[in-house]
Amino acid sequence: METQSKLSLGGKVSYGLGAVGKDMVYMLSATYILYYFQDILGVSAVAMGVILLVARIFDAFNDPIMGVVVAKTKTRWGKFRPWLLIGTLTNAVILYLMFSAPPHLDGAGLVAYAAVTYILWGVTYTMMDIPYWSMIPAFTNGGNERENLTTLARSCAGVGSAIISIATMMVVPALGSKLGGTVPQELAMRYPAQQWTELNGFRYFTLGVAVIFIVFTLLTCVGVKEKSNVDMKTASIGEMFKALVQNDQAMTVVVTIVIINVALYITSNLIIYFFKYDIGGTDWNAGYALFNMVGGGTQILAMMLLYPFLRRVCRLNNIKIFYVSVCMSITGYLVLLVMSSAGVSSVVPMLVPGVLIMASAGVNNVIITVFLANTVDYGELKNNRRDESVIFSMQTFVVKLASGISAFIASMALHVLSLKQDTASIADEAIDFSLGVSAQSKMGLRMVMTLIPIAGLVFAVLWFRKRYILNDQKVEEIAAEVRARSSSSSSDAQ
Predict the structure, then answer these.
(1) Is the model more confident about 226 or about 248?
(2) Contact present, 245 and 15 (Cβ < 8 Å)
(3) Is residue 319 very low, low, confident or very high in pLDDT (cuts 50, 70, 90)?
(4) What is the pTM of this model?
(5) pLDDT digits over 258-302, tens only?
(6) Could you tell me which of 300, 329, 305 has the C-alpha nearest to residue 461?
């Protein structure tokens, strides 16, 4: 493996823009797919929970296969960029179709539409996500260079996520009101004014997101050059799974990612219901948008400022930063539970736990990717093969797996707690949805949003602490040994 020269500033900017578009798409799907089909279109919460979970099980087979496909690809444009572009184009189309369900569909037809489009979305997202993240270890030499590029990419991904979190429920109603028109007479009983507005608003908003996604990926493909074709020995699917199982550090990080993201995604799936049915009010959209705006901004600042501050000013290693981050998140969940149980209905005090949780999410976005990237060198040293695409395919899978598990938990909670608007009784857009929800249902929602994530985070810390060994010193030692081995192999070959 030859030593790579550093990426130019233009290359870094192009790479970062790709992360912005990519995570705009992911956050839109992960956060609003349940709300769109369950609360707007009327698909049962149980059906949606099953669909989201089954799709993720399907990805268990699809993602590693895609990792092998990327590893075997050899074209004049490299191995990563062709799949990055193909995956983006197809995923953008499927994303638009997924949030453009025909309003006349209902029953089994609507469930089938949701299942097919969501599974196809997962497949096409994998096609571009794996090659995108596989560029990190392929284009860096480890240490600070890899960490800096990872920080940049994760910061830009956080920007994309924050844009969706901040803008969606402000832009969707505006677009729906302006472009959606009036409800057709034959659909008036099924779609009251607010639902019809949101239904059309999501379609137009998704079209804009899809276009941005394509443009940003094109800039990545043009601006980031594959400076060398990393020599990756290909293997069968069975051999690849064996390599992953043998890389105990990769498996440790994978499990940690799943648990941490399940905790976060449970909250992101349910927070819109919390504002709509618990805090309530006729202007719940405004409170929800403010909460997301502050949370999204906090996530970005945490990646760009808090992580570097802890790393360089406080001189904490990544493992200690991880523990600090998880403690912040647990504190945020406890504060959220206490405030909501005490009857706090103003959004401003709720910003405090939101800041703690989202700051933790921002820091974890950077750290977890650094941890995973470090396992590539570890695996090469231990197993004599560099399986970056396969290992990073696991990142794609586990993030989507966490999304599926959390959506299933959220769906079951919504079903048990009966949190869904009664469309037959709604004739006005200015309505307080919380008035028809029992105190028991509200308390149940608060507990699902907080206590389950706390339990998951505690388990993640215990799991990680017991098994992860790649501290900063160990990473540098492994990187040096890998470089020495590569130099020796090159000399022998000559």
Answers:
(1) 248
(2) no
(3) very high
(4) 0.80
(5) 999 999 999 988 999 999 889 887 788 888 889 988 988 898 889
(6) 329
Q: In this structure, what token pair is assigned to residue 432?
A: 């307080």
Per-residue tokens: 36: 């769109």
